[in-house]
Write a structure and sequence with these properties.
InterPro entries (chain C): HupE_UreJ (IPR007038)
Largest sheet of chain C: none
Number of strands of chain B: 8
Distance between the termini of chain C: 74 Å
Order of helices and strands of chain C: HHHHHHHH
Distance between the termini of chain B: 44 Å
Chains: A mainly alpha (208), B alpha+beta (323), C mainly alpha (204)
Number of domains of chain B: 2
Number of domains of chain C: 1
Strand order of the largest sheet of chain B: 3-4-2-1-6-7
Strand content of chain B: 5-15%
Radius of gyration of chain C: 21 Å
Order of helices and strands of chain B: HEEEEEEEEHHHHHHHH
Shape of chain C: globular
Oligomer: heterotrimer
Keywords (chain C): Membrane, Transmembrane, Transmembrane helix
Structural class of chain C: mainly alpha
Pfam families (chain C): HupE_UreJ
Radius of gyration of chain B: 23 Å
Largest interface: A-C, 57 and 70 residues
Shape of chain B: elongated
Number of strands of chain C: 0
Strand content of chain C: under 5%
Transmembrane segments (chain C): 38-63, 70-90, 96-113, 120-137, 149-173, 180-198
Helix content of chain B: 55-70%
Helix content of chain C: over 70%
Protein name (chain C): HupE/UreJ family protein
Structural class of chain B: alpha+beta
Amino acid sequence: MLRNRPIRRWHAALVPIALLASTPAHAHLVSTRFGEFYAGLLHPLTTLSHVVPWVALGLLAAVQGIRGARWNLLAFPLAVAIGVLLGSWLPGFDAGLQWGNIASIVLLGALLATAVALPMPAFLGLSVLFGLSHGYTNVVSELEGRALLLYTTGVACAGYLLVALLGAGALVVVRQNWGLVAVRALGSWILAAGVIFAGFSLLGQPGA
Amino acid sequence: MAGRYRWLSRCLLLWTCLLGSGAAHSHETPVALLTIKEGIAGTYWLEWTYYSSRNDVPPQVRWPGHCFEDYPRLECGEQGLVGEVVMPEIGDKYSAAVVQVRRQGAAPRSYTLTGGNPRMVVTADGTVPWQTIAAAYIPLGIEHIMLGVDHLLFVLGLLLLVHGTRSLVTTITSFTVAHSITLAAATLGWVGIPDKPVNACIALSIVVVVVEVIKHRRGEHCLSARLPWLIAFGFGLLHGFGFAGAMSNVGLPPESLPAALLFFNVGVEVGQLAFVLTVLGLYHAHRVLQARLPAWCSQAGIYGVGSIASYWFIGRFAALLAT
Amino acid sequence: MHDSLRTTPYWRSLAAIVLTLGSLPAWAHVEQGVAGGLVSGLLHPVMGPDHLVAMVAVGLWGAQLGAPAIWLLPVVFPVVMALGGLFGVAGVPLPFIEFGIALSALLLGLAVAARFRANLVVMAVLVGLFAIFHGHAHGTELPQSANAMAFGVGFVISTGLLHLAGILIGLLVRWPVGSAVVRACGAGIAAIGLYYLSAASGLA
């Protein structure tokens, strides 16, 4: 009953919103000065499969309390930067690490939905692991030298901005009595989106 | 307040690494100029003027469907040249293209195509719709401030000097007002100041602000910390001339210039506001998370910015003397 | 740095964001995957009326029952629905899907109308069971060229907003008149469910 309904003309109205969320992800790089910094900054922020788990990580850090969020501020961007450098120097593991990213959406969503308080080393280990994996898969073309440095800094900055702003924002929110519930509900949404993404990827649907 | 410096130094350090090498070199921004001259019976004559070390062919052009190019001729039939003209390679091989349309018995019109807006709409009466101008110039303004690291560093310096919301708002507003005044004055041709001394002075303005920040941190008495809007206004006048550099090469017809100027300025303010809000957001985020860097980090960051700005100043001043 | 016109190409990405609205057609062909996925994800949950009212009913019921059901039901639903979607993608056959969806709208509507209250776990399991049917129906809906992540995000946002709408309407229960309105909504939903149920079973 829900099948085979054509996307109608007015649905095009939604396209700008969708584009707004996605456009620059595929804008390719030109080897000139600060371009790589902004390209690096925007690539993860405009790719849903990166930005969704990063948001989850930022929120999860807040759920872990102030210490977790604080250390995450340092650990995650550093891990992302190292991941990007590894991705440029030792390419070839993208396909495998895509699964790491998919797992990160599901796992982080689940942890957020259940609001689990992890031991500090476990949380930071997870953050570093996903940071490396996401950094690695953010490499979009062969860059070297200054360009690579700028691009890496851009991607790491994106990670830093997200975990700093969201971590602090969520920390304020979870102190309200409705706040934790809202954050957990968001976690369940992320988990659900991750499960759908994982399902389509695993079962070989196109576009994954 | 000490906490603010500590975390801000993180940003400063970041910029320091970014700017490290070759900051004083200018980058190549290849611009192509296309002149379209109306002949008879829907025929137009094309003429390219371009320079780029990377390309020896002019950018590719997609004409409206009823036009056929046989360089240097363009046949548009009875309709004439109306409709959308796109240059897909702009923003890639070329930074921008300026297209001048010279119709018979009408004043020439200029259109600017940029990476953000590689298209133009040609109308029969030759006017440029304001939407087209907005689409070209708002992104140009945002781009200009986002890539103008010296402007951003200056704004960052101002943020380090201010205390409290009121001071912040007045300072940023006076910077905005000041650079809008000189941007307008320079673009409309009321005042003409050459690029190079302006750029040297902009570098110097960062040095001055950094020195004021260091003095302020040491607890020394300084005017700028008490009246940061004054320093913002004074140097804002200077930065406005810098912004005008981006507008000066663009051959717009006089009646389109005020609109272009307005939209360019809007773009600059949007970019500046985004930067200020990001920095303030990070400041509050660090405060909430109680994340503070050791004092030497902030010290190193501020001195780093000062060194870079001094390096720029010396480089630009030397270039000024050399010419 | 200011020596020349700063119309630099590499900054295009930011300009692109600003210009997306203006230069839609040029980007559309490149971004079909993500945009298409997001659009179809956003639209699917609102395309079938019985599905739509069942989503709202979940929110209404949760709000009517108060904490912790107010957030537990909407949290359980999308996750289980996603799992149900997996069955759909995998081609696991599920009998009476349309029947199940219509039935869920009817029963959830009745529960709201009757202010039915049971053990929390029982209610969560019940809602979860319905969610599998709803998810399964959407499971094979991803357009061929669309981006799966975008589809998932759009789908979840749309579903979540429907629940939220239900919860917001459901907050009226604080007032006596509002409580009656909420129950009336439930009755309406049950009626819609009943219509689709009869349609699914071939009676109408």
